[in-house]
C-alpha cells in the first residue's frame, strides 16, 4: 500500500534541475529487491522522467514528499508471451475434454469475431488485468492481421495499431511481436514438395500475408506507425508448421536488420516434432537454427519437447526459452526441461500465453514446481533466479534491456507486494524472496509504477477502476 509523507517544500514530482520538462518523483520502499539472494530494508527510489535516477539503501524513515510503499517492492514482472484475445476463452474451454488441437478450434471461433474496435477493448482490459497483477511489460504475439477472408483492412496495420493503443491506455509497456503465419500446417509431402505444407484454412485466412516478403512490408508499416516511448515492434515466426522453410530467412533477416527480438512457438506438441522430422528431417529447433531464426534475440516459446541437441543449439546461440506453465498445464502440453536449459546457460522467461490464469507469481513458481513433479526432487532454482526469469530476462527477451531491474538508469517500472495478506503473513526477513515467489499471488499487488507513472494504487487500476465489469463487457463484445 502506498501513502504520501507530507512535504516540507521538496515535494516529489518537482521539476528536475537540468530538465525542465522532466519530473522528479520519490518513493520509499519498506523492503525492496535490488538483485541477489536477499531483499533490502528502507530503500529510497528517485525517478527523473521515466528512469530511476537514484537509489539509496538503509533509509530508516521516508523523507518528506516521498510516496511510501508498504510491503516489498520488486521490478515489474514481464509477460513475455501473450495472445490477448485468448482471455475471452477463460472458463469456457475448461469445461470440456480434448487436446490442444480441439481447443484451437474454439480459439479460431473467437478470432473470427475480432475487429479493430472490439479487439482494442478486449486487449485493453486484458492488459489492464496484467498490470493489476504486477506485470509492467508484455510481448503480444500478434497474428490476427486482416479482415474476414484474409482481406487487408484499408489501413493494413489496423489491428496492430489497436493493440498498441490498448497497451498505452492500459498503462503497460509493449513489444508487439508481429507474427508471420503463412501455412495451415504440415502436409503429406516432404521438404521440397509442393504439399510439404497445406494452405491456410478459412479460419486461418485472417492470419496470413501470402509471403514473408509481404509480411515484412506490413510489419515495417506497423513498426513505423506504432513505435513510441512505451511500444516497440519485434518479429515472430508462428511455428515451423505455419511458415515454410523457404520463407523463414526473410523473417529472420527483417528482425536482424531492425535489431528486434524474434519469437517462435517451438516444440509445444509432440505432433509438431514428429511432422517436422518427417518433412525436414530435423527437429523444430534445428530447423529454425538452420534458417537463421535462432540467435541471441530469439525466444523459443514453450520449448517443451526438446532433445539434448536442441538444448545445446539454444545454448550455443544464447537464445531464451519462454515457459508458460499455466497454459501448458491447461492444454496438456507436457513438462519442459527447465533445469536442463538453465544448466546449459539458457535464460528462462515467463508468459501467461492463453490467459487461463493471469498471475506472474503462479507462472514463476510453476517453473520450479513443474521440475519437482518431473524429478521427484525439490529446490532446483533459487527464488532470486526465478525472479530474474520473471523480470530482467523477460525484459531483455522483448528488447527492453533497460528494464526489469531496480537500478540507476533503468526504466522506472516497479511493483509493490503486500506482506500482511493471508498468503504472505508469517514472512521472515531471511526468506522474504521465497515468500514472494512461493506464497504471494496477483491479489497481493498493491501498487504498480510504469515509467515513473503510477498505474495501480492500493490495488485499484487508476484508469479502469471497475476492471471486472470492463472485462465482462469486452468479452461479451466478441461473443465469447
What CATH calls the topology of the largest domain is TIM Barrel
Q: CATH H level of the largest domain: which superfamily?
A: Metal-dependent hydrolases
Determine Rg (CA atoms, Å). 22 Å
From the spread of the alpha carbons, the general shape counts as globular
CATH class identity of the largest domain = Alpha Beta
How many DSSP helices? Answer: 15
The appropriate CATH architecture of the largest domain is Alpha-Beta Barrel
Q: Fraction of residues in helices?
A: 25-40%
Q: Detail the poorly predicted runs.
A: 6-20
Explain the overall architecture.
- This protein has 15 helices and 20 strands.
- By secondary structure, the chain is α/β, with parallel strands linked by helices.
- The protein folds into two domains: 111 residues, Urease, subunit C, domain 1; 314 residues, Metal-dependent hydrolases (TIM Barrel).
- The strands form three sheets. Strands 1, 2, 3, 4, 5, 6, 17, 18, 19 and 20 form a ten-stranded mixed β-sheet that branches.
- About 3% of the residues have low confidence.
